[in-house]
Amino acid sequence: MIQYSDRNQKEFQERIQAVMREKGIDGLILTEFGAIYYATGHYSTFQKVTNVPGYCIAVCPVEGEFTVIMPDYETMSMEQVPGCKIDVSTTGIFIDDHEKITGKPAPKVRPSTVDGSRTFRQALDIIKARKKDAIIGIQSKLLTYDAMKIFQENRGSCTYIDCDEVLSRARMIKTKWEIEVLRTAAQMSERQMTATANALKEGMTVGELVNLAYQNCFAQGAGVTGARPVLSVGGRYFGNFEIPPEDTLRKGDIVRMDCGPFYLGYISDICRAYSIGRASDEAKRIYAALMEGYRRELEMIGPGVKIADVYNEVMQIVRKTVPDYVRGHLGHSIGTYFLAEEYPYISPYVGEETFQPGMVVSCEVPYSSAVIGGMTPEDSIVITEDGYDRFTYVPEEIVEIGV
Is the separation of the CB atoms in 180 and 391 below 8 Å? Predict the structure, then answer.
């Protein structure tokens, strides 16, 4: 199985810096958990949990090593990540005698919690030391008002631009390590869905279903860094996965299972449909149409193929059976972004974008009905030089449990 220690930081740094040079950017200041992990290999649990910009920051100059600004509590984990510098920030979470690691005396005064103004200034100082009038990419769409205010107050002669496009371009083509991590994550997700489905039965509570799905995610073994099983039951959808409704599974319900475990910080995103007992004829009819479109989607995909063309043709196929079928996309890239979907989308809005070798894509034909339920054929694939390599295989029909 692929290991974290197999990750090559140099590959990620070179990929990001190549896009920065192309776009004329002197440095990036990354504040979102997934972007920090992607760029540096540092998995900041505190940044992930708090979701407060500034707790951990990645500073990425266009030349030279990247720097991670982090609380001293996290610095020991950086021993696993060669190729990055460490700059310690002062927070309310710390380790005594830390000077034995950093060589610097520990601060005598500590704030009650993270001091965002300090870490943002540290990040800016690193880039300004290289170029006073630097063009700096920031994740402006994800920054708080207070964070943006600190950036503006300390900009000097620097210019800020949003770095979403830089990250999207860099992340779009995966390294060999990333491909194997995502393959493992997808296959873990498939196993946990099968294990969960085998225990489905009429009368099971939704709470029991959710709990079982989480258990089966973490049962996939070492390297599982989190889980997000997205579930729907019949026509009942719920976003509060941790506090499910007080409801039970009924005969004929379609149970939709989506996503699953995170492996080494990378998401899994496949989807399966199961029926408690026999599925209705209408559900089978619609699923058959989705699968017809899905098969055509996979037939079309390959290097150099226009992404929008795939979307348009699949939509026409599904609409022969489901005339009102409307979806914004039929798949997307995946990686470290915590909300799952990364650019590019299989949609009509990507211009002349084509599939390229090294892209990892979750291909899907989504369907969600408040009457029939959710049914989405979805697998993950990697685009190769002559086609694609499939990580998982969705069933051709709704899987009927207990029949």
Answer: no
d(CA 45, CA 153): 29
Cα dihedral: 274, 276, 281, 282 (round 10): -70
> 176-401: which CATH topology?
Creatine Amidinohydrolase (3.90.230)
**Among the ranges 49-58, 231-240, 301-310, which has the highest mean pLDDT value?**
301-310
Look at the alpha carbons of 212, 216, 219, 223 in this order and tell me if their dihedral is positive or negative.
negative
Q: Which CATH superfamily includes the segment(s) 4-170?
A: Creatinase/prolidase N-terminal domain (3.40.350.10)
CA distance 239 to 345: 22
Q: Report d(CA 374, CA 256) in Å as an integer.
A: 5
Q: Is residue 184 within 8 Å of residue 391, measured between CB atoms?
A: no
Tokens of 368: 């969600």
Residue 188: the pLDDT is 98
pTM score: 0.94
Contact predicate 336/325, CB 8 Å? no
Collect all residues with Cβ–Cβ distance below 8 Å to 181 and sequence separation of at least 6. 2, 263, 264, 266
Q: What number is the average pLDDT over the span 69-87?
A: 78
Residues 6+ apart with CB under 8 A from 98: 72, 75, 88, 106
Please choose, from the candidates 17, 15, 7, 76, the residue with its C-alpha nearest in 3D space to the C-alpha of residue 44: 76
Tens of pLDDT, residues 202-221: 999 999 999 999 999 999 99
For residue 245, whether the previous peptide bond is cis, meaning omega lies within 30 degrees of 0, is: no
Domain positions in the chain are 4-170, 176-401
* Residue 127, φ and ψ in degrees, nearest 5: -75, -40
